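>> Question from a student workshop board

For tomorrow's exercise we were told to take the sequence and the ligand below, predict the bound structure, and bring the output to class. My setup keeps failing. Could a helper post the expected result so I can at least see what it should look like? The ligand is pantoate.
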Amino acid sequence: MKLCKTIADLKVEISSAKASGKTIGLVPTMGALHEGHASLIGAAASENDITVVSIFVNPTQFGEGEDLDSYPRTLDADCKLAEGMGADIVFAPTAKEMYPSEDMTWVEVTGDITKVLCGRSRPIHFRGVTTVVSKLFNLAEPTRAYFGQKDAQQVQVLKRMVKDLFFNLEMRIMPIVREADGLAKSSRNTYLSPAERQAALILSQSLKKAEEAFNGGEKASSKLVEIVEAHLKTEPMSDIDYVELLQLPDLTVAETEIKKPHLLAMAVRIGSTRLIDNIILG
Ligand code: PAF
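>> Workshop helper replied:
Here is what the output should look like for this input. Compare the format with yours to find the bug.
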């Protein structure tokens, strides 16, 4: 496996792969890789000739007071995991490489899709994501790009960007990978103390409650949200940022009675750690 720390190094690899007609799978990450990322890398390796994993803690998607400085940085372990899952190239640039000039060129998806859910409390987040992912698409020239359903809003925003900007690639979305007890895998789970880790189970448990109610015949969107909120509140360590049920794919206001696919998504603070989780109903 090759570690490229500069754009020039990456370009050499991509040009040679393209010249020999190889397909390229790109897995954009911020590192601190876990089994969720491993599933993306494994899928990319099985569906493409060359797999590129980017590892870059992207400063432009973090707001003031967020965890940019404390975000875990574990490049050696990440390279081992990526190689073990079949990656051919790890691209780990510096911020200066990715953002060479002080004046920024932004790629921004506007409208409600970036304003609801996480967009409410993280107003600049998706602009940072779409900007860096556009750069990565232009650099790695992927045939397919891999993202996890855990970041459900990010998935819909990026799909919109790909459609609107005519990026010539296939978006591949992989299911959420969970711990045996239901907690969705996340790089931020490492922030949790043992007691918080236990309390964090309330996220997946409350989604399950809604799913059971839905499968049992409850189709009223307000009732389903209520069920989730009520269950989250039974955990004293939880502090709800949002619980929302929205129509897919555009994240518009839910139908009163759910008849087609809706995203039920939440962000909840457990101590000082903000966790997200979701399921699709209907
Ligand atoms: O999902 C992430 O880890 C990041 O938002 C991404 C897509 C790598 C962009 O920095």
